[in-house]
């Protein structure tokens, strides 16, 4: 069965078996699928708020809003799709076992709270800056844990070379785009019409150019964490689909820290040139990529779990 087939099998409605053991297996799969897609939808909704901030940046700078609005609309479509799948799986879960409605209400409440706080995502990202500093450490710790596992536990399994290579390639591309956004696109968005070299020389003249250090550290920390995770997945011989899903999910989490990494640069531009703050014009596109990574990660991890 292909990766696409396994991912689709996790979201395709199936009749509930009458045999208790088979019914329990299907119910566990439905619960994992529902929780995974609902969590992905909440993360995607927060990226939708980042996309909306990019649309505001486009309007403030006098740029065309068509592409930014289109990217934001696509983000909302992806989020809505994940939400529909997650709710659908939850409904199937409860219909097959009505007594589980109380347990099902907990994720519903958590998802509702997550969606309600989504419009505050850019603000919450800055307030929760310590969390974004910890996340690369958590990813690296997971990789170290995999490196320390006894590889003989899965001695007969092939190493997930393809999944790790694809995942690291996608993750590094995301980090490079984030650096370009922070160092190039954000200053040019906040001070339209000012050449990039004049922007940085102007900030340097008043001691506001040191903000470049933060996004470089952000990219470096995540690059190390992702590399450690990739090496751990190879040593532990995890599956290609699960490995790719984990690396794509980690890359999506890295994007969540981009507003924090860019904050000092935005403040430097605002203080030097008397402009307002905000996100770069590329924010809607970056948010769309991050949301797509979240959806792909959820599909791969749910599909990989079903194949185990």
If you had to describe this structure to a student in words, what would you say it looks like?
The chain has helices at 3-9, 20-61, 66-96, 101-117, 121-127, 129-148, 161-190, 196-205, 213-235, 240-256, 258-273, 283-307. It has 308 residues and is an all-alpha fold.
Helix segment tally: 12
User: What separation lies between the terminal Cα atoms?
Assistant: 13 Å
Question: Per DSSP, what share of the residues sits in E-state strands of 2 or more residues?
Answer: under 5%
Low-confidence regions? none
* Count of individual beta strands: 0
Report the order of strands and helices.
HHHHHHHHHHHH
Largest sheet: none
Based on helices, strands and strand pairing, what is the structural class?
mainly alpha
Overall radius of gyration = 21 Å
Average of pLDDT? 85
Shape: globular
Helicity range of the residues?
over 70%
Brief overview:
This protein has 308 residues and is mainly alpha-helical.
Indicate the topology.
Layout: H1 3-9, H2 20-61, H3 66-96, H4 101-117, H5 121-127, H6 129-148, H7 161-190, H8 196-205, H9 213-235, H10 240-256, H11 258-273, H12 283-307
Helix pairs in contact: 1-12, 2-3, 2-4, 2-12, 3-12, 6-9, 6-10, 7-9, 7-10, 7-11, 9-10, 9-11, 10-12
